[in-house]
Write a structure and sequence with these properties.
The structure is a homodimer. By secondary structure, chain A is an alpha+beta fold. Helices cover about 40% and strands about 25% of the residues of chain A. The first copy, chain A, has 6 helices and 8 strands. Chain A has a 4-stranded antiparallel beta sheet with strand order 1-5-7-6. In chain A, helix 2 (about 35-40) runs parallel beside helix 5. The interface between A and B is large, with 39 and 39 residues.
């Protein structure tokens, strides 16, 4: 399948505009910005939804469930003992899970060659579960860049299971360690992309960075 | 990129032969067999390493680590309270993790059209993290079919963290529930493949099943 480059570019610049709107309203995970800029500088790539890694506490039967799920806590930085202690004390419905996820990056590229190249760089950075999710003439080739960094720990079950309060400090230590493992891989991907920056950059993105006085981001 | 169909087929039948050798020496997870046969019946597909879902207990710093990792326990069926109790009592080095994984299937297909079609069927069965891992002229287009079914629970840390013995029965209940969620999706994929069996099957595979007196598997 051949990508319609004009329509693909139109979508790229729409997503680029949306990125800055998300940043303005505080919706964007700020740790992401340098990596997102680096990807969008590539003429053959743009970024979709992404996450630099996070710690989440959910009230749901299964850790991966979307329905009947209540996200009680979400943070892209290490968490504190008190933050978990406070949540543990409150009522819940299904089960409480502590979930630490590594980074997840979605990008669209406009050729199979770019897809293979990007997957190679991602694997080099430790994103071992990366692959092509779908191929579409207008939307491009959608890649998911994913590490194996993950923890999903049962904290509480209504039938009597409950994490021991004495265990919480060490549990938090391990969860934060895992979060930082993910952030490290995120930075590795950023460095590898920077080192492999193509000679020809996307002029529209470059000019927009000049206009925003944000050229320092790519220095 | 265009796949070299002759060389691809040669590899397909090599892998098919190896599958039966693995079964004979007890290396193959037997739950897998009907699904693997169903995939290989398709003229455009063959299977690589796969797993129908499992419960593993590892001694390692991080649940995803491969180095400095000791797999203490591995089972493709639900586990019993005593099995975990016995392990918990024994000495360990790094950390003890209880890991439940859903099914993971690797297949090779010989065209982009087949890849897109297979990914569509897999997503329909709940394998939401499925994608193309790589593309190679001889090896074909390698797909990873993956669900979100996962639990990775810290059991023990040398710095004092230890799962409470009273909590173990419920922890086992949840782990087994998650394993069975994965097996359910595995069966969904099998049923969807069977319902979408192509008109033209792979004759080599069919004849080999006749020779092995195993045609009943595909009834």
């Amino acid at each position: 399948m051949i990508i319609d480059i004009d329509k693909w570019k139109e979508r790229k610049y729409e997503f680029w505009k949306r990125l800055w709107e998300d940043l303005e309203i505080g919706y964007l995970d700020e740790d992401l910005l340098p990596l997102l800029v680096e990807f969008n500088l590539r003429p053959d790539t743009y970024t979709l939804s992404s996450c630099s890694g996070r710690i989440v506490i959910v009230d749901s039967i299964k850790p991966w469930a979307r329905e009947k799920t209540n996200v009680i806590f979400k943070k892209h930085q290490p968490i504190k003992i008190d933050e978990l202690m406070d949540i543990i004390k409150k009522p819940f419905v299904h089960r409480l899970w502590l979930i630490v996820s590594g980074p997840i990056i979605h990008v669209s590229v406009n050729s199979l060659k770019s897809a293979i190249n990007t997957l190679r760089l991602a694997r080099e950075a430790g994103f071992k579960h990366s692959g092509i999710l779908s191929i579409n003439k207008v939307k491009g080739i959608i890649l998911e860049l994913l590490t194996g960094v993950k923890m999903s720990h049962l904290l509480k079950d209504p039938n009597g299971y409950e994490v021991n309060a004495n265990n919480i400090p060490l549990l938090i230590k391990v969860a934060n360690e895992i979060l930082l493992d993910g952030k490290k891989m995120f930075n590795q991907l950023y460095q590898i992309l920077k080192m492999n920056r193509p000679n020809k950059l996307d002029n529209y993105i470059l000019e927009d960075l000049v206009k925003k006085e944000l050229l320092w981001i790519i220095k």
